[in-house]
TrEMBL record:
<dbReference type="Pfam" id="PF07729">
    <property type="entry name" value="FCD"/>
</dbReference>
<dbReference type="Pfam" id="PF00392">
    <property type="entry name" value="GntR"/>
</dbReference>
<dbReference type="InterPro" id="IPR036388">
    <property type="entry name" value="WH-like_DNA-bd_sf"/>
</dbReference>
<dbReference type="InterPro" id="IPR008920">
    <property type="entry name" value="TF_FadR/GntR_C"/>
</dbReference>
<protein>
    <submittedName>
        <fullName>GntR family transcriptional regulator</fullName>
    </submittedName>
</protein>
<feature type="domain" description="HTH gntR-type">
    <location>
        <begin position="25"/>
        <end position="95"/>
    </location>
</feature>
<dbReference type="InterPro" id="IPR000524">
    <property type="entry name" value="Tscrpt_reg_HTH_GntR"/>
</dbReference>
<keyword id="KW-0805">Transcription regulation</keyword>
<dbReference type="GO" id="GO:0003677">
    <property type="term" value="F:DNA binding"/>
</dbReference>
<keyword id="KW-0804">Transcription</keyword>
<keyword id="KW-0238">DNA-binding</keyword>
<dbReference type="GO" id="GO:0003700">
    <property type="term" value="F:DNA-binding transcription factor activity"/>
</dbReference>
<dbReference type="InterPro" id="IPR036390">
    <property type="entry name" value="WH_DNA-bd_sf"/>
</dbReference>
<dbReference type="InterPro" id="IPR011711">
    <property type="entry name" value="GntR_C"/>
</dbReference>
Amino acid sequence: MARNTPLAPMIGPDAVASRAAVRSPKTAELVAGTLRRMVVEGQLQDGDFLPNEAELMAHFGVSRPTLREAVRVLESERLVEVRRGSRTGARVRVPGPEVVARPAGLLLELSGATIADLLTAKSGIEPMAARLLAESGTAAAFDELEQMLEVLVADGHQSARLAEATGAFHLRVVQLSGNATLAIVAGMLHEITVRHTAFVFKERRPVSKADYEKLMRSYRKLMQFLRAGDAPGAEAHWRKHLDTSRELLLTGLESVPVRDVMG
């Protein structure tokens, strides 16, 4: 059983080593933290350029090397984009889920996660998102999903973009639910899921016209629950839909590791 280690008894020779492990933030990190907070709070928005170096150096009271180190910190976090040789300076780039999708995919590979793990996680995320969307979704949100559905219908079951298009529909349901945490997690899993689905459709089980029409009916049924504001109905239907999809996508592939899909 884990136990907490008290800080008070840390005196004597051990205390010196302990204190050495706690360092003060560097000035560049403090500057980066202030600029990061300005992005989070909306004072600096996507597409804005940071003030020029002279202004920032005067504002923070730091040297040019310190300021540039701070900007490199933000660049490594994908919060700013710096074009070398440009006179316009650093530009704010608010990241989306794709920024963490690739590292998350790598972490899943390293952890030995399987596609079954991934699809089970989606089954925990998306039904709740459907409930939230039914409770508080707007007409504009429902119209957007209907338009995506119309494109799916028009493309047909032989579309080369079927996996991508259905994956985008699922992701948008979560994004429109209004829950930022669910949307970010779904965005992280999106790329891996689409690749697996495309592999199944192309290599193992091409989608028949009958299965495709059944899929479209299920999507339309979800839209009915959403527009009716039936949160329990939307959640239950989407959970059943995902359970059925998971069974179809996993048959014979239950233990396929994520790395075999990511390539």
